[in-house]
Amino acid sequence: MLPELKLAPLRYVLAILDSGGFHAAAKQLHRSQPAISMAVRDLEERLGQPLFEKGGGKALLTPFGRWCEPRFRELVAHHDRVCRDALAIARQQRGRVDIAAVPSVASRLMPALLAGFLEAYPGIDISLQDGHSERVNEMVLKGEVELGITSLWLPDDTLRFDALLHDDIGVVCRDDHPLAQKDALHWRALKPYTLIRNGTSRLLEGSPAAELLAHSTLYISNMISLTAMLEAGIGVTTLPRLAFQEEHQRLRFIPLATPHLERRIGLLRRARQSLSPAADAMYGYLMAQLEGSHR
Amino acid sequence: MLPELKLAPLRYVLAILDSGGFHAAAKQLHRSQPAISMAVRDLEERLGQPLFEKGGGKALLTPFGRWCEPRFRELVAHHDRVCRDALAIARQQRGRVDIAAVPSVASRLMPALLAGFLEAYPGIDISLQDGHSERVNEMVLKGEVELGITSLWLPDDTLRFDALLHDDIGVVCRDDHPLAQKDALHWRALKPYTLIRNGTSRLLEGSPAAELLAHSTLYISNMISLTAMLEAGIGVTTLPRLAFQEEHQRLRFIPLATPHLERRIGLLRRARQSLSPAADAMYGYLMAQLEGSHR
DNA sequence: ATAAAATGATCAGTAAAACTTACCATAATA
DNA sequence: TATTATGGTAAGTTTTACTGATCATTTTAT
């Protein structure tokens, strides 16, 4: 029914018009002149009407050709636009990544990392949102973000986790607390004190130290509230080192030596789903930057 | 630099998405399945990114592929739109003709002709304007109209004239005028009477009757004014038969027998310029309708 | 007026592309 | 576990697009 107008002949026609003749167009397009003639003739046959006047020695458009010219230009321009945009995205010169990270990573690690990424990939837009690890997990799973930076939650065959760094668990208390002078702790050393649980406390689960959780009666999810509690000397808590905010001068972080606990922070992505070029750039960048640096 | 995205592979991709698989798309497109696979792979290589997920058995888009899909659809749709419109014009199902005609033809011949044309070519828009032959000539020459219907003015090698009909020159006078009873006239019979010249009077030039013009002191260009003058009995005039309005009951048309003068009415178009498909339809229609009918 | 140079068209042969048939590997289905 | 999907691969064929040589006209220059 509809003949297929290939783009090359359309370009030939436009080149003829722009350069003023078949020979000039041929040179411009690095083709032989008969190639141009034949392509134009084929195009005219498909359309059922000549585009160029046949008589004179010069290449002049017919009225039909004059009607066609602007549409051909638009169509070719449209093609080139789509082509250019697609390539820019494929080449990671443009695009967008949506990332989610646990708050500690988002606030402690990402600023420097994103600054470097923004410089390396100036055309890529980034959206970063934080959430606790469960929420990050869910966002990746639901496709709300392409990449998550989190501690591994539930190993899932629809998700893929690539470890980036290990983050030791420790105890945080005020500097005048009896524990504050220690260099390393055994979990039993915490038993006499009030333990404030927080969002990261479930990292203790499955270890001997889990016993502490059972005796804890205070749970604070918000990090700001938690540090306020600790600064008020109400109790102690456990935190991964990365989640410990060093700028609080009266708080101390003491590594938990026995059991040695750590969370594995890494990149989370859907397993059977490839990344967008922009996300792939981010993925590669993060892997390269954090490879070995904190392990 | 920019790779050329051929339209066929884009259609393949869309067909895969619409039909849900490579095999189904192949059947729908009347191609073999490997043809689809190879075209898609080639397209992916050109873009530098896969469009479909490789792992699973099903045809699922990558994020990059999801970005591409709507643009591919738009591009293909754009192509089809241009293609369809161009074909409609080429096939004379749509388009526009601008015509100019001398007033007599415009009012006496064109109504019936255009009615027929409108029926035969329902998609074609027509613009008809009238003007004296010199003006029609100029409009065709300047490209203001594609076709003129006029008596040949100056044979010009940039214009082409195709005769349609011969229009006899005669004398017009009131029914009580001495000449009104004659069947045919010799030019000298006019000498005693007041001759009113009009726009068609120069048709007498170059004939013996031209002598009459020298003695005429009244020139009326407007046909309504001219008939009013004739009805008032002020004088007589010469007119081609087609320009004589038979609905004026008190006016008579007497053919000029000696010299036998006629104007050749025909189609005027630019010589070295082909017609738009719509104008070509009009040209062919008019030639067919008037061929022989009035000659 | 004549020669020279330019225009686009034509034709045969060739290189490139797109496609088909046959077959393979893998994943979902019965 | 056999079956029937899926899509991928390879060799061979058809189709398309192109080149090089040549021609007919028209325009330009002498």
UniProtKB/TrEMBL annotation, chains A, B:
Q: Which SUPFAM superfamilies match?
A: Periplasmic binding protein-like II, Winged helix' DNA-binding domain
Organism for this UniProt entry: Vreelandella alkaliphila
Q: Does the keyword Cytoplasm apply?
A: no
What protein does this entry describe?
LysR family transcriptional regulator
List GO terms (cellular component aspect). Answer: cytosol
- InterPro entries from the entry? HTH-type_LysR_regulators (IPR050950), LysR_HTH_N (IPR000847), LysR_subst-bd (IPR005119), WH-like_DNA-bd_sf (IPR036388), WH_DNA-bd_sf (IPR036390)
Please name the PANTHER family in this protein's record: HTH-TYPE TRANSCRIPTIONAL REGULATOR YBHD, NITROGEN ASSIMILATION TRANSCRIPTIONAL ACTIVATOR-RELATED
Which family does the UniProt entry place this protein in? Belongs to the LysR transcriptional regulatory family.
Pfam families from the UniProt entry: HTH_1, LysR_substrate
